[in-house]
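Lecture notes, unit on binding sites. The following record was shown on slide 14. It pairs a sequence with adenosine-5'-triphosphate.
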Amino acid sequence: MAHLLQATGLEAHYGASQALFGVDLNIATGEVVALMGRNGMGKTTTIRTICRMTPLSAGSVFLEGADLGAMRSHHAARAGLGLVPEGRRCFPNLSVQENLTAAARTTRWSQAWTLDTVTDLFPRLAERATQKASSLSGGEQQMLAIGRALMTNPRLLILDEATEGLAPTVRSEIWAAIRSLKSSGLSILIVDKSLKDLMSLADQCAILERGRTVWAGVPAELTDDVTSRLLGV
Ligand code: ATP
């Protein structure tokens, strides 16, 4: 399978402090890859580096052959990265519909995602169309954040903490939506605390420790030793 995303030897710093020391991450087209590791091991920094929101100190990152390392974040988004950031970050004073239409873009590779298809995936967003994003529940804001990323018709959807802070019933709704995105063939990079949900969804896993990829493979190969040593489970 051709690699959609190929990140090799990523290094990144926050000022003088180094956060990534060599992250390798490959995602094939149509694959779901779970990026795992205990708190502070570099998952968010890896995502921010791929999305060009944190400078790349060393290493390379290509999306469908395009060199993201040379791009600013808005160009990386245009190249096909759809980010659902930790904390959701919707425009609080815009309505649900305005949040979605502000993100809308059709691309050479996909016109699948429109207001209609996003609200088919999340009917709750249609019910709340005219409400301000700030008035939504946490779960609805996460649906909106995913909807906004889909409206850009990305090649790769990136979810940082997909279900963090959400009630169990809403979590199930979000996981069901992500499963349906996977079935549609969308490529996905996902971070979440629920090992069980990640294992049932992911085709591949990559585990970070202190800013390095220290394990990569299919979920079935994840032994108890690896999960206890590297994930603290
Ligand atoms: P978590 O699950 O807690 O979000 P993470 O695996 O996503 O953890 P990162 O947030 O990428 O990890 O953090 C990696 C390292 O970089 C940590 O040592 C963290 O303290 C440091 N770090 C993260 N953000 C900043 C920042 N804005 N300034 C300085 N250091 C940071």
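Take-home: The CA atoms of residues 189 and 213 lie 15 Å apart.
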